[in-house]
Amino acid sequence: MPRPPPPPAAPVQDLLFDAPADPAPIVQAHDAGPELRTLARQLPPRVHLGTSSWSFPGWAGLVWAGRHADGTLARHGLAAYARHPLLRTVSLDRSFYRPMSAAQFAACAAQVPDDFRFIVKAPALVADAVLRSANGQGLQPNPGFLDPVLASEAFVSPALEGLGHRIGALVFEIPPLPADLRRDLPALFRRLARLLGALPALAPTAPDAVIAVEVRDPDWLVPDLRDVLRETGARYCLGLHPRLPPIAAQLPLLRALWPGPFVCRWSLNRRHGAQGYDAAKATYAPFDRLLDPDPDTREALARIIRGTAGAGFPVYVSVNNKAEGCAPRSVIELARAILGDLSA
What we know:
By secondary structure, the protein is α/β, with parallel strands linked by helices. The protein has 14 helices and 10 strands. Pfam families: DUF72.
C-alpha cells in the first residue's frame, strides 16, 4: 500500500507558538523566588525537568505573573515558561496531532534559552497504527505506521532544522495496537528496527539529543524491544501511565539499556485507570495544586535521575498535570527529591 503524503503543516502565521511581535512580552513570568532559584542551581546541569505543554491559566502565581486565557498562553507563554528556573524542558505534544514545520519549530526555539531542551512527540501519522477521527475513534489501518521515510520527512528533519541543538528527545509514542498487529510481535519489532535504523543522525546538529520509543501496550516490554533499542542506539522512554505496569516493573528494561540518557514522560496517575484522562482533568482542573501526591514515584524517578546524571548522561523528564494535579509543583517536588540524598 503506498505511503500517504504528509499533511501540510499549519501556516506559520497560524502557529500557536509564534513569538509576539511587541517587544514587551504579553505574558510575564512569575518570580519563582530565591528558594527555587537555589534549588535549580544545585541540580546537575544535564537534568532537564519540565511539563507537558504550558497553556494552563491555573499556573498563575506559579509560572505566570498574571492570569491569561489558555489561547494567549499557547501563543505567548513559552518565553515566560522558560524563565522559570526549574523548567528546563517542555514536551511538545501538539506535534502528535499534526506535523510541525521547521519554521514552527524554529519559532519555539527562538523563545527559550540556549540550554533549554525540547521533548517532541512524533506525529500520529507515523506513530499510530490506526487512522483516527477527530474524536479519536479508529477508522482504518494507517499505511504510514512506522514508515522510515515519512518519519524522516515529516518529523526528524524538520525538528533538526528548526530546533537544532535544543532538541532533547524525539519520542515515538506508539498508542495501543490493534489485536491483529499484537499477534505478530516479531514483525512489529522488525518494522521498528527498520524505522530507527533509517532515521537521520541527530548528533551532528544536536549532540545531546536522543531518539526514544514510548509504548502503551505491555506486550512491547520484552527482550526483543531491548535488542532493537540496543542495535539502533535509541532509548526507552519510561512511560508512567496506567496502561503499563508500575515503574518498578519497567526498571529491568532500563537496567538492560544502561548506561545512557534517560527519557521519561509521566502522563497519568494510576488511580484514574487506562481511560482516565477526562476523569483526571475533571478532578485536577485548574491544575494549581497537588491533589494526588505520589512521593513513591517521585523517589523512584529521583534515584534513576541521580544515577544517570552522575554517570554523565542527559536526563529529560516531562510531567503532565494529570500525574499529581499540577505539573509545575510536581517538578518542584521531583527536584527536591533528586537533591534529597545529595544534600543529606
